């Protein structure tokens, strides 16, 4: 037996992780073990030591809040659950590891919805708060992904659907005052962009701390906000999916029509064709020309086609003058004179924020830009080996940890990136990804993992993934199922059969795939997907690779 496989088989997470609060944490570790029993081990301990701490610290971020059942908290100085982050993208990642906690977290926002339809922007032990809206990642997308991944109940789906439909009505009533169809920002905190120059000379909170009111004497707000508008577009798109699943076919069609109307409003008002960028539009009709991570937020809401996304990759996301910092993604373009790299406080004026990092994944994967995505993940994983506190921010230049500690987005980023790049990842499409890429030893040549073995239970089977420099092995229920060349992703269907292979590295990966008694030689280039059909392989997707610019 491979020595790392043998080592991993002797790790029981319920004994390996020491809970800080055994009475609270023991049921969470049991849930972790029952759901997937996820863990990994490697030749080097640089990343495994951080991973172990990440699991431990994640438990510290889960606690009962106004209800008997525990929910996820933001962590650090943020005592509670925020809709823009904790209750959406953080919980979307958590759902792969602790789905019961994830579902309780989502349901909390429906439970504390106000009578007029406003969903609280945060939930704390002291109550639910409604002072601002604070929207980024679409809640409906996260709810739908959890439902598809974990087989959520119809009761859960219908409860969330009713709450989100009512909230859509509130937003169109109170945040469309200029009658453009765009959703408006009245304040900085509406988007969670604390200290961003995007909101210089705009108040942090809405007028009189009322989410329905905008300062009538401001010459700047309300902004037509591209990220808020894209959020509602994507929200409506996924509400259509949910309505269809619930048998509400007429409502589904209404949501589709409304979604397209919102998308048209976004491009009509907030998109600058010259710059290829989305900007706020102030009260005077001027673009607020600050290039920020608003771009990533909008793209993660599925508003672009593949051609547009490739163009923006080249112009912005992979441009070292813009957002492709050594440790991406900075919150403000690097060439903007207002860029401030200070990471010692809560700032969206320059530092790389972990929320921006984990939100970006959906944009890349929606457009099947897997190779380019790994270029943005690899440096963050290298920085993880130096984690001591799990901070909110990183220096975009050095990768050094910044503000606060025990912050659930950075904790979940560790769990997510290890699985997404090098492990076994179940998806909402009922497939399983085995990604044969190892962390690259880019920082001072120091070893991050070396070869590794990752485990996970999926659909009643126990999988072990031996991920080595040249070759990968998939073991299922202690039997060798498949081998394939490193640099590829093997995609299994929901029956556990090989469905396709994806090129995950720049250039062409050549080698032998051994599966189901057959040996097939393959040559697969970056971002290509090849369908496997009883030993025959056929290319079904080919986009090329967008390379970095300067």
TrEMBL record:
Protein source organism: Paenibacillus septentrionalis
A matching Pfam family: MGH1-like_GH
Chain ranges of the Mannosylglycerate hydrolase MGH1-like glycoside hydrolase domain: 113-368
Superkingdom field: Bacteria
Record protein name field: Mannosylglycerate hydrolase MGH1-like glycoside hydrolase domain-containing protein
Database matches in Gene3D superfamilies: 1.50.10.10
InterPro entries associated with the record: 6-hairpin_glycosidase_sf, 6hp_glycosidase-like_sf, MGH1-like_GH
Taxonomic path: Bacteria, Bacillati, Bacillota, Bacilli, Bacillales
């Amino acid at each position: 037996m491979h020595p790392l496989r043998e080592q991993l088989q002797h790790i029981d997470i319920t004994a390996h992780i020491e809970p800080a609060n055994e009475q609270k944490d023991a049921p969470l570790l049991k849930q972790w073990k029952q759901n997937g029993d996820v863990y990994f081990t490697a030749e080097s301990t640089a990343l495994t030591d951080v991973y172990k701490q990440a699991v431990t610290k994640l438990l510290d971020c889960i606690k009962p809040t106004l209800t008997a059942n525990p929910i996820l908290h933001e962590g650090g100085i943020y005592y509670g659950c925020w809709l823009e982050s904790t209750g959406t993208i953080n919980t979307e990642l958590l759902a792969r590891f602790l789905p019961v906690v994830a579902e309780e977290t989502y349901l909390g926002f429906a439970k504390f919805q106000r009578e007029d339809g406003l969903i609280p922007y945060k939930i704390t032990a002291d109550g639910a708060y409604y002072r601002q809206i604070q929207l980024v990642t679409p809640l409906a997308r996260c709810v739908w992904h959890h439902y598809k991944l974990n087989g959520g109940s119809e009761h859960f789906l219908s409860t969330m659907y009713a709450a989100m439909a009512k909230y859509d009505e509130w937003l169109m009533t109170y945040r469309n005052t200029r009658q453009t169809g765009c959703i408006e920002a009245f304040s900085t905190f509406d988007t969670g962009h604390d200290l961003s120059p995007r909101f210089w000379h705009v108040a942090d909170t809405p007028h009189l701390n009322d989410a329905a009111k905008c300062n009538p004497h401001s010459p700047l707000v309300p902004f037509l906000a591209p990220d808020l508008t894209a959020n509602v577009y994507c929200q409506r798109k996924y509400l259509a999916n949910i309505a269809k699943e619930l048998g509400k076919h007429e409502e589904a069609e209404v949501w589709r029509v409304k979604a397209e109307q919102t998308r048209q409003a976004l491009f009509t008002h907030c998109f600058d064709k010259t710059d290829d960028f989305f900007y706020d539009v102030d009260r005077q009709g001027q673009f607020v020309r600050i290039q920020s991570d608003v771009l990533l937020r909008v793209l993660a809401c599925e508003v672009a086609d593949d051609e547009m996304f490739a163009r923006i990759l080249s112009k912005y996301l992979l441009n070292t003058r813009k957002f492709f910092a050594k440790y991406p993604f900075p919150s403000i373009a690097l060439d903007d004179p207002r860029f401030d790299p200070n990471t010692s406080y809560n700032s969206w004026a320059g530092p790389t924020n972990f929320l921006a990092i984990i939100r970006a994944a959906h944009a890349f994967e929606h457009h099947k830009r897997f190779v380019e995505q790994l270029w943005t993940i690899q440096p963050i994983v290298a920085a993880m080996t130096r984690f001591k506190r799990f901070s909110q921010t990183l220096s975009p230049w050095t990768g050094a940890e910044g503000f606060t500690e025990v912050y659930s987005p950075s904790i979940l980023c560790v769990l997510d990136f290890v699985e997404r790049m090098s492990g076994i990842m179940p998806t909402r499409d009922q497939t399983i990804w085995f990604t044969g890429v190892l962390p690259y030893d880019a920082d001072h040549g120091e070893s991050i993992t070396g070869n590794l073995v990752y485990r996970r239970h999926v659909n009643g089977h126990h999988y072990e993934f031996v991920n080595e420099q040249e070759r990968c092995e998939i073991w299922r229920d202690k039997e060798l199922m498949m081998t394939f060349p490193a640099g590829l992703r093997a995609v299994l269907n929901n029956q556990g059969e090989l469905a396709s292979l994806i090129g995950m590295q720049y250039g062409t990966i050549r080698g032998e795939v051994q599966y189901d008694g057959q040996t097939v030689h393959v040559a697969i280039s970056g971002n290509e997907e090849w369908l496997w059909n009883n030993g025959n392989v056929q290319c079904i997707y080919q986009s090329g690779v967008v390379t970095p610019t300067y």
